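Supplementary Methods S3. Input chains for the assembly prediction are listed below.
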Amino acid sequence: MSTFIARRFAFALVTLWAVLTLVFFIVRVVPGDPAQVILGEQATADAIAAMRTRLGLDRPLGVQYIEFLWGAVRGDWGVSLVTGRPVVQEVLAVLPWTIELTLAALVIGAAAGIPLGVWAAVNRNRATDYVIRLASLLGLSFPAFVSGILLLIFFAIQLRWAPVMSTQGGSFSAWLGALALPAINLGLIMAAYITRVTRSAMLEVLGEDYVRTARAKGVPWRAVVWRHALRNALIPIITIVGLYLGVLIGNSVLTEIVFNRPGLGKLIVGALNQRDYTLLQGMMVIYTFVVIIVNLLTDLAYGAADPRVKLK
Amino acid sequence: MTGTATATLLRAFNTNKTSWAGLIVLLTVVALAALAPWIAPHDPIEQDIFARLEGPSALYPLGTDQFGRCILSRLLHGARYSLFIGIASTLAAMLVGSLIGMLAGWYGGRFDVVVMQAMDVLLAFPALILGLILVAMLGPTLPNIILAIAATSVPAFARIARAPTIAVKEREYVEACRALGYSDARILFLHILPNIFAEILVMSSLWLASAIRTEASLAFIGLGLRPPIPTWGGMIREGFENILDSYWLAMAPGVAILVVVFALNLLGDGLRDAVDPKLKGES
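Predicted structure tokens for the full assembly:
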């Protein structure tokens, strides 16, 4: 097990280095001189030169690269070109919003998706199964901004149950009101994915010998399904849901835009629009960290759940 | 396509009604898109300043937008862009990704490990963020958008092509080819590709759905083809700006995207069940 973990860690480190290198060069390929972009068309040559020095763009590429890697490792990701605040601060300011939304969506997704998936698997190829499968396929066909806009039109504009714009601070009910629609939007799409994953994981487990044994010795069917089968299906469910991180992040970006909610997604879109190139670089580093850490945890969970994985 | 692949796909169709439904809806949309210049009631960028933000009427069946343009006409023409970008980027990703996956599976060893590790990282990176960054950097033109969306789905095809290549590589007929002294390229393209083609084709319908969704998402964020070109994502973006007083503007293109993506998912899901019953219902 320890060699397996060590190897996954080594892989994660190499991957991290490769992606950081890629990010460094991608950002430097952006057309246009960042100094010119910050100062505008009217800037004098002197001012541009001074800005280039401030940004460290006048130094050799190799030096910039080493400093970038060293900074990335220490958590120093530079200063936003637009606001002048450190990238870390910019990110930390909106991070709680994104975490709150993501967790709420995962809870909704699991609370709806796991029971539906189990129900579909138990009723395989019956009407219930077909309805659940069609509904989950419809759910994951929704672009997050289309479902978000539909929710907004129906609940915020027609019924006026929720605010059209998210508000910061205020009472608990205001907080809940602002979180509800974005979380439901993201949560329903997650539920669609989780339903499908749960269904197939359950089908796999329900075919196992120990399920037959449990039934043969007289364990009630409900207990077999919920206690024996679901428990064993949960780990593959968790690891596969980990693989949907990318989908979840993409959908949360769209959800934040539709509901005008602060968060990492709005931050990165703002950085792109304003050509805030250090903020953009920092955000890509953060996404890379998140992706690699979740991948590593997924691999480890998978290895722990299935000893055969380690042998490969 | 060889006999085996065709037979597999035909069997898939005969056993799955939802695949049929998906295919029929998809073909209808393709036909409407192809005929758009002839069946659209108006020019998609023609402005009628006396009929702005109007509801449905005989003249404008789905109403007009804030510039007085016919929503139905824009929707029909927009289908051409959505489908073209989706199909072109999926084809590009299919070609490049399958080639990478086949080579990785065929040669194995360290080459396989390095290439697939790179693909896994790319696969794990949020597709929308990658697409956003690429389009923002390169500029929102038709080739760049196709390139960016293709880049996000290359790793998926590499994975799909690699596994069956490894499985097929050990079969007797491939060993026979080797014994006959055939080149690697000949074995890969004439003997292995036909046998894994069905799986690649099935996955491409699911990825086409994803490509169309990504294109619409990019356009919604403002990184689609420049206005006044009608794209579904762009129409939703414009409708969203007027959501408080004219919420129906965003509804028509939103439903259009949903219908096409759902049809493709139905088609791909049904086909995959038939090609590999073990995967039934997996996502």
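The first helix of chain A runs from residue 2 to 29. Residues 72 and 195 of chain A are 38 Å apart (CA to CA).
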